[in-house]
Amino acid sequence: MLKVIATAALIFTAGVAQAQDRWMSIPQPAAMPAATQSGTAPVNGIEMYYATYGSDDGTPILMIHGGLAHADIWSAQIADLMKDHTVIVADTRGHGRSSNDGSAYSYGLLAADYMALMDHLGVDKVHLVGWSDGANIGYSISQTNPERLASHFAHAGNVTLDGIDPSVETNEVFGGYVGMMAADFAKMSPTPDGFDNFLKGVSTMWATEKPGGADALKSVSVPTLVVQSEFDEAILMDHSKMIAELIPSADLLVLEDTSHFASFQAPGEYTAAIRAFIDR
Q1: Which residues lie below 8 Å from residue 172, measured CB to CB, with a gap of 6+?
Q2: Pick from 127, 150, 146: nearest CA to 63
Q3: Which of 41, 70, 147, 195 is deepest in the core (most CB within 10 A)?
Q4: What percentage of the chain exceeds 90 in pLDDT?
C-alpha cells in the first residue's frame, strides 16, 4: 500500500511560520563548496562537466538537476551531504558547462550520458537524487539499468504529458526560473549566445511523450520516493500520486509550502528529506 508522508508532521514544519509564501519566489543558490575532483568527461560525443565532493566509501549520491539548469543549483545540498557521503554532480548535455553535438534532447539519451559518466568515474551504483528532468532521467535509468541505482529520490518528475499543469506556460515564478537559467547559461556555456536554440530543444523534449509511459513503472524495482511539492507550478499532484501507486513499494512525500523549486526555497529541509530516505 502506498504510504503518503505529509511533511507538516515531519521535517518541513521548520520555517513555515516565518515565510508562508516562500513558494512564490526562487532564491539564488549559495556558492558551491570546493570540489574533491572536477573536469569534463568524453561522453557519447560530448564533453560533460562533472564534479565530486566528499570521500566516503559508501554508495555515492548522484544528483541530477532539472531542465535548463546546471549542477551548481545543488550547492546547499552538496555542502551538507558531502560531510558523510561522496556526492557526484554534472551538467546534463547542452546545459551549463557541458557541450552538445547537435543531437536532439531525449530522456533516453540523457540517461545514457549519465551511465557513461558513471563508467568514466568507475562508479557501479548510486543513490540518485533527481529533480524535474533529473527525476525523468532517473525513471529512465530505473527501467533500463536498475542495477545501477541503490535508490531514486524523484522530485517533480512526470511520465506522461497529462501530468504537466498547463498553467505553467504563463506562471510568473516558472518564468522567473527561465530568466535565471538564461543568465547562468550566458556565463557558463561553451555557446553562451545559444540559449534560445537550447530552450527550443529542451522544450521539444518536454512536449514529447516518454517511452513506456505510465505502464513501464509497474516493473520498476528500484526503491523510489516520489516527491511532490504542495504548490508545484509544473507537475500535478494527482500525477505524482499515480506514479507512486504504480511503482511497487514506492512512497509519496509531499513537501508543504514549497513549489517546483523546493530545493532553492527550503534547502535545509530538502536535504533532510534526502537523508531520511537514503540513510534509512
Answers
A1: none
A2: 127
A3: 70
A4: 90
Q: Are strands 3-6 and 224-229 parallel, antiparallel or unpaired?
A: unpaired
Nearest to 92 by CA among 131, 48, 53, 56: 48
Strand residues in 156-262 grouped as ranges (E)? 224-229, 251-255
Cell numbers given for 240: 505524482
**pTM recorded for the entire structure:** 0.94
Which tens digit of pLDDT belongs to each residue from 170-210? Answer: 999 999 999 999 999 999 999 999 999 999 999 999 999 98
Cβ-contact 218, 248 below 8 angstroms: yes
Long-range CB contacts (within 8 A, 24+) of 78-82:
78/32, 78/33, 78/53, 79/30, 79/33, 80/268, 80/271, 80/275, 81/53, 81/54, 81/271, 81/274, 81/275, 82/33, 82/53, 82/54
Cβ pair 148, 124 in contact under 8 A: yes
Q: The C-alpha cell of 6 is what?
A: 505529509
DSSP 8-class letter at 13: -
What residues contact residue 3 under an 8 Å CB cut-off, 6+ apart? 251, 252
